[in-house]
């Protein structure tokens, strides 16, 4: 049984355009049976935050290839990717790399 | 599970794992390593000698922002003078915002900025006008193909204006890998053969160009920008969805998920390619001097289906400055797509662009061409 969690979800590199242009979102995740991890955070984001074109953000149960995920400024690769369990006050940043430079 | 400690300083928590070495580094140590690698790339390839005046192609985007930032940090060590050169293609709803980002960067970094506009250089032809002209012409022609060619010319012009000795652009490893894929998919043997190597020496009088970020993966470029808190413009060009490159990019991203080293492996494969003798591109064919054609632009071409953007009138121009010739078209693929069809828009651009820079166009298919073909001289593509 996971308690409600307060996290900051951020979008950058153009990803914010899918979220009404809003970069920072303070989010309270409700208490639920299973612990909150990135996998079910993505489901939550798709349902509650994503304003348009979900296929540009999510592919299958993960993020679209080309979208980087940093948790507290660390690459999610180091933390278990989708299996990383969220802690209270975590910052999760999604940066899109999919545009010209 | 918390991240492991940084393998370099041992003090901070690691922020990422470098793709090639697998080393876990904190943000600060990663940035230092990234800069050291760019320095090594430049030194090992002798890309930018001391005293070079370097025109940095600046679009406001992530790659050119990182490039300019890193080169600025390395400039004293390398003995370089930097100028930012930005190209205004005239794309409404996109380029103005990007240029605003470049202006902010120029001010923050205290670097001189020169902006070169297609409209000025190519007789009123903005990308928006080109897109209108090429829309719905039967085969799905991408205006992006034109843009690539014209942008190279515009960058060259901007670099000359500031007295640059070298041009640098921010192409990263992913860009290079996409280009390799595109060239394979389009059967562009000429480009495949030319594609490898860190830069072009600059044939036919063009300035030498190089891509110091060529061995850096796109992910690392973005992470560098993140850890250095760099401000860049991150919207997609309004025409990008039409560009063929998008297909190559999607394919590459999916491949990367299955095999992370695919990006650098592709680039290295291309460097090691040798073409079969039958595939080697033939020497470019004759050049038709513009002066024989362009003194009298043909009215029916100007008022054809493409139309002219408002406010642009057909121009007469002086014969181009004799000198080195250069190829306006993009090479083999574009030749087969566009160069032979006498499409009004393309001919118009060919005629407008070349005299602006005092050069000749190759393989102009304008029916109004008169005069004997000339022997080929050096071609720059």
Can you put this structure into words, describing what you see?
- The complex is a heterodimer of chains A (101) and B (381).
- Chain A contains 1 helix and 7 strands; from the N terminus they run ββαβββββ.
- In chain A, 11% of the residues lie in helices and 31% in strands.
- In chain A, the strands form 2 sheets. In chain A, strands 2-1-7-5-6 form a 5-stranded mixed β-sheet, with no helix packed on it. Chain A has a two-stranded antiparallel ribbon with strand order 3-4.
- The longest helix of chain A is centred in the middle third of the chain and has 11 residues.
- In chain A, a hairpin with a 2-residue loop joins strand 3 and strand 4.
- Chain A has one domain: Ubiquitin-like (UB roll), CATH 3.10.20.
- The N and C termini of chain A lie far apart (45 Å).
- Chain A is globular, with a radius of gyration of 13 Å.
- Chain A is mainly beta and 101 residues long.
- In chain B, the strands form 2 sheets. A 6-stranded mixed β-sheet of chain B has the order 5-4-3-6-8-7.
- In chain B, helix 7 crosses helix 11.
- Chain B is an alpha/beta fold.
- Chain B is globular.
- Chain B has a domain of 228 residues: HUPs (Rossmann fold), CATH 3.40.50.620.
- The C terminus of chain B is likely disordered.
- Chain B has 14 helices and 8 strands.
- In chain B, strand 7 and strand 8 form a beta hairpin.
- At the A-B interface, strand 6 of A face strand 1, helix 2, helix 9 and helix 10 of B.
- Chain B: InterPro entries: CTU1-like_ATP-bd (IPR056369), Rossmann-like_a/b/a_fold (IPR014729), TilS/TtcA_N (IPR011063).
- Chain B: One of its GO terms (biological process) is tRNA wobble position uridine thiolation.
- Chain B: GO terms for molecular function: transferase activity; tRNA binding.
- Chain B: Pfam families: ATP_bind_3 (PF01171).
- Chain B: Keywords: Cytoplasm, RNA-binding, Transferase, tRNA processing, tRNA-binding.
- Chain A: This is Ubiquitin-related modifier 1.
